[in-house]
Design a protein that fits this description.
By secondary structure, the chain is mainly beta. It has two domains: 232 residues, Porin, CATH 2.40.160.20; 108 residues, 60s Ribosomal Protein L30, Chain: A (2-Layer Sandwich). Strands 1, 2, 3, 4, 5, 6, 7, 8, 9, 10, 11 and 12 form a twelve-stranded antiparallel sheet that branches. β5 and β6 form a beta hairpin. It is rod-shaped, with a radius of gyration of 42 Å. It starts with a helix and ends with a strand.
């Protein structure tokens, strides 16, 4: 797949996911390193008297990157990235120019990346995709070529700069209890655009003892794929909110009051009174309920106050019969000297649940 097709596919993915972004916010730093899997470099030999195209095969190499980025908070991230990598030359794949080669290809440069974080509804992993553009220097270091059909050798070295583009797809894994710190792994394809010509000296096909003559080799592209394993730290990530205590999280129950009326000079519960006691007992099952106050009321006077106390105790017994623990019930009898004996306000027991 050509890099242009990959770039178009990533751009379409960014737009389709725009509403699902889960961004980092603020400045961050990112570093990573990993293996480089280079594609064979298309090359042309420009040695005196020799012309031919061939592929330069490279061994497994490495790439590394260090980035400083900023996330505005809408899913996008923008970063300035420095890169450094190396791949050793393995051999030539060149039927027109059979032989072998040695040396290395080194890359270094600066890229500007635009990335987009995707929210997949998981706090443990965040995918991201991105595109990058910049400038890369490709250094041919210690390149040596020998031919199977001719004596002598060709050597070349040098450095050449050219624009570059890359496509990025990766995953970040936030580290629990370490706000802002994440492990990352991403896959990148980079294409150093344009060709690069490297000068050298050749003795291939010359008589023994002859001085080498000037020659050159041209690389038409440098197309690499890399897997980078890294770590990222976002500076402005707030610490996780402290978990609220159970007492704070639970809503406070509303205070409810029930009045149990008694017949004049009686301490027995009526049918209506039993229904009210049952309702009050059911209210104690609400979350957070901790106290029940039972207060008997009657007029001032020894017998009257004693009656109010008996009535209160009867209500307490009825609540316990409905399953309310005695430990959460407080009981008392009160006297009201403002109302004559026998009025409804002096023939009641009040139940208050909290």
């Amino acid at each position: 797949m050509r890099l242009r097709s990959i770039i178009l596919a990533l751009a379409a993915s960014m737009l389709s996911w725009a509403a699902e972004a889960q961004p980092i916010q603020g400045f961050y730093i990112d570093a990573g390193a990993g293996p480089r899997f280079p594609f064979p470099a298309k090359s042309t030999s420009l040695e005196p008297g020799v012309a031919g195209r061939f592929d330069i095969q490279q061994k497994l190499g490495y790439d590394s990157q260090l980035s400083l980025g900023y996330a505005p908070g809408n899913g996008w991230r923008f970063e300035l990235e420095g890169t450094l990598g190396r791949g050793a030359i393995k051999t030539l794949n060149s039927p027109p120019l059979p032989g072998s080669s040695a040396g290395s290809v080194r890359n270094s440069g600066v890229m500007v990346n635009a990335l987009f974080d995707l929210d997949v509804r998981s706090r443990y992993v965040y995918p991201y995709i991105g595109l990058g553009f910049g400038y890369q220097f490709t250094k041919l270091d210690g390149f040596t070529e020998t031919r199977a059909d001719k004596p002598g050798s060709f050597s070349a070295s040098g450095s050449h700069g050219a624009p570059a583009a890359q496509a990025i797809a990766g995953l970040s894994f936030p580290i629990p209890n370490m706000p802002g710190l994440s492990l990352t792994v991403d896959y990148r394809i980079m294409d150093t655009l344009g060709g690069a010509k490297y000068s050298g000296m050749s003795s291939i096909g010359l008589p023994a003892g002859s001085a080498p003559v000037a020659g050159s080799i041209k690389l038409h592209n440098q197309f690499d794929q890399t897997t980078l394993f890294g770590v990222r730290y976002a500076f402005n990530t707030p610490p996780p909110a402290a978990a609220a205590s159970t007492a704070e999280a639970a809503p406070r129950p509303a205070v409810q009051s029930y009045e149990v009326a008694f017949d004049p000079d009686k301490a027995a519960l009526t049918g209506r009174a039993r229904t009210i006691v049952r309702d009050a007992a059911m209210a104690t099952s609400r979350p957070g309920m901790t106290r029940i106050a039972v207060t008997g009321n009657d007029a001032v006077g020894g017998d009257r106050q004693a009656l109010s106390g008996r009535r209160a105790n009867i209500v307490v017994a009825a609540l316990m019969a409905e399953g309310v623990p005695r430990a959460v019930i407080s009981v008392q009898g009160e006297a009201d000297d403002q109302a004559p004996t026998g009025q409804a306000r002096n023939r009641r027991v009040e139940i208050v649940t909290r």
